[in-house]
């Protein structure tokens, strides 16, 4: 591979959408941010210089970061944030991965505006496992707030209430004509008849899973989270924030005298408010006169079964070129209830969360408090005292009926606890949605690894019977999985990457409320099983 250099200048920029102009944090003044391109085996060197008042860090979402954990990016986990007028160079090699990923800010809610595609092509002279498309197109789904998203979340954290929702969804930053004062900000995809296009779809929205469809066109899914899958056809996709999906779009053999909306709108089952609006882009044929425009039909907002039926269709290729390496046996099992909860209102304060408390969210009833020094630094330099403890529970201390009446006490514990795994531990994690404060799906994202989704279901996970149906033959491999609303999902991975790795809900609202935990994977004995020391420009807290 070769080394590719990028420079990210973090700058404020005025951007107007929905007739609303605001100053936002951007990379190089671009919204969405610049495309980062590489080939499998290349080294990426990205110098990030912070020119804004906010702290920031950048995460390369889905990159394995093998022996390069210092470049992963989550603030207070693998690094302290990059402060104003400081810089940090992210330096990592892309090993054994090709496909569509994205990069985004990993500090507070800055990823609302700081995100962009990360496209990894196969090595030279290596082709896709499908016919070469006529053209490739990247479509980032995002979310637009008229307000400054940092103000939205800090107000929510102070009052303990749910945050204000966004005003719009967008395709490549453009909300489209279904919003007021937005027709000029419409994403248009111009196509030729009789061709195949590869669409690289990325859900970079902050807080919503999104349905996506293009009127009168069937899509063939070929990749998820930068891993090829057995191709299958669908009219509607659903993607959680943090998930990417590559699809083939076959255009009509003869250009029709019509154009076609592509729409994105949320899937949501939780309580309270959400942004119930629809982003629209337009698929246009080059020679057509566009007399009519067709609209696709999307599932209803809370179509949990449609989501389950779609996500269960994903299968690994599982062939000799792309074998499945799912652990057939497990060294260490975990059962993590994930979901919302609350915490007491501090004295002399009024809280606007549930029953006068504050909203919180947790894994195994632990709402992760961010440390003041990055976990990876404290771990590496053996200064963990007062930073974190290694007693994150493997199983709930107080199990309850996760699909029945919630317990009386729904308060979470605020703490910084981690799980420590010896190198090469094979791990199984069953994540169960708790339905406290309403059933809601949670897109769980694991840094530093892909995992295999070996099982999922509705209701309470049954440890005696459900594992009998686990798929250990061709399970899909991903980096983000929706824990189903009112259900569970089981994942397996091999802890073969030394470092500190965050796992969290990719809804930023739940992340801010503490739905996150961290794994420490210890060094192995061989030199290529150890985490090297940090680069000299690693930011200080
Ligand atoms: Cu894409 Cu920790 O996130």
TrEMBL record:
Molecular function (GO) terms listed? copper ion binding; hydroquinone:oxygen oxidoreductase activity
Q: Which InterPro entries match?
A: Cu-oxidase-like_N, Cu-oxidase_2nd, Cu-oxidase_C, Cu-oxidase_fam, Cu_oxidase_CS, Cu_oxidase_Cu_BS, Cupredoxin, CuRO_1_LCC
Question: Matching SUPFAM superfamilies, A to Z?
Answer: Cupredoxins
Q: Gene Ontology terms, cellular component aspect? A: apoplast
Residue ranges annotated for the Plastocyanin-like domain, each copy included: 11-123, 136-287, 405-522
Alphabetical list of Pfam families matching this protein: Cu-oxidase, Cu-oxidase_2, Cu-oxidase_3
How the cofactor is bound: the record states: Binds 4 Cu cations per monomer.
Give the EC number: 1.10.3.2
The main place the protein resides is secreted
Q: Which reaction does it catalyse?
A: 4 hydroquinone + O2 = 4 benzosemiquinone + 2 H2O
Checking CDD domains in the record gives: CuRO_1_LCC_plant (cd13849), CuRO_2_LCC_plant (cd13875), CuRO_3_LCC_plant (cd13897)
Q: Which domain of life is it from?
A: Eukaryota
Primary role: Lignin degradation and detoxification of lignin-derived products.
- PANTHER family the record matches: LACCASE-2 (PTHR11709:SF256), MULTI-COPPER OXIDASE (PTHR11709)
- Please report the name of this protein according to its UniProt entry: Laccase
């Amino acid at each position: 591979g070769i080394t590719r250099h990028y420079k990210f200048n973090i700058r404020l920029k005025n951007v107007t959408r929905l007739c609303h102009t605001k100053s936002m944090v951007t990379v190089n003044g671009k919204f969405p941010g610049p495309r980062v391109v590489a080939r499998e085996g290349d080294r990426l060197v990205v110098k990030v210089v912070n020119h804004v008042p906010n702290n920031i860090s950048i995460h390369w979402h889905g990159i394995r970061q093998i022996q390069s954990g210092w470049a992963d990016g989550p603030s207070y986990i693998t690094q302290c944030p990059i402060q104003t007028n400081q810089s940090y160079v992210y330096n990592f090699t892309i090993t054994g991965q090709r496909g569509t990923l994205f990069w985004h800010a990993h500090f507070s809610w800055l990823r609302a505006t700081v995100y962009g595609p990360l496209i990894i092509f196969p090595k030279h002279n290596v082709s896709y496992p499908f016919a070469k498309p006529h053209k490739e197109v990247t479509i980032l789904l995002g979310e637009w707030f008229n307000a400054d998203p940092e103000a939205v979340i800090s107000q929510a954290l102070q009052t303990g209430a749910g945050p204000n929702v966004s005003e719009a969804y967008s395709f490549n930053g453009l909300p489209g004509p279904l919003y007021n004062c937005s027709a000029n900000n419409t994403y248009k995809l111009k196509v030729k008849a009789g061709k195949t296009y590869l669409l690289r779809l990325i859900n970079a929205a902050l807080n919503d899973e999104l349905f996506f469809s293009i009127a009168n066109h069937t899509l063939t899914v070929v990749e998820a989270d930068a891993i090829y899958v057995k191709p299958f056809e669908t009219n509607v996709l659903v993607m959680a924030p943090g998930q990417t999906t590559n699809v083939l779009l076959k255009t009509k053999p003869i250009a029709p005298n019509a154009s076609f909306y592509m729409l994105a709108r949320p899937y949501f089952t939780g309580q309270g408010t959400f942004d119930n609006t629809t982003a629209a882009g337009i698929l246009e044929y080059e020679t057509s006169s566009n007399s009519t425009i067709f609209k696709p039909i999307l599932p209803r907002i809370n179509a949990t079964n449609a989501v389950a039926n779609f996500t269960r269709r994903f299968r690994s290729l599982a062939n000799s070129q792309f074998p499945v390496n799912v652990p057939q046996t497990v060294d260490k099992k975990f059962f993590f209830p994930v979901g919302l909860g609350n915490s007491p209102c501090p004295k002399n304060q009024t809280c606007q969360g549930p029953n006068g408390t504050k909203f919180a969210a947790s894994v195994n009833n632990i709402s992760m408090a961010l440390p003041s020094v990055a976990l990876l630094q404290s771990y590496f330099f053996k200064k963990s005292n007062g930073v974190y403890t290694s007693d994150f529970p493997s199983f709930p201390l107080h199990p309850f009926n996760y699909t029945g009446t919630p317990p009386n006490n729904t308060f979470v514990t605020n703490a910084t606890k981690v799980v420590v795994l010896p190198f090469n531990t094979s791990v199984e994690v069953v994540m169960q949605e708790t339905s406290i404060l309403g059933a809601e799906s949670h897109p769980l994202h694991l840094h530093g690894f892909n995992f295999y989704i070996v099982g999922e279901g509705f209701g309470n996970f049954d440890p005696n019977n459900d594992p009998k149906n686990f798929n250990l033959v061709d399970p899909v491999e991903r980096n983000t999985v929706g824990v189903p609303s009112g259900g569970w999902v089981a994942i397996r991975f091999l802890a073969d990457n030394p470092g500190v790795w965050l796992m969290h809900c990719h809804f930023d609202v739940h992340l801010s409320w503490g739905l996150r935990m961290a794994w420490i994977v210890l060094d192995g004995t061989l030199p290529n099983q150890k985490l090297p020391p940090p680069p000299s420009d690693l930011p200080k807290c």
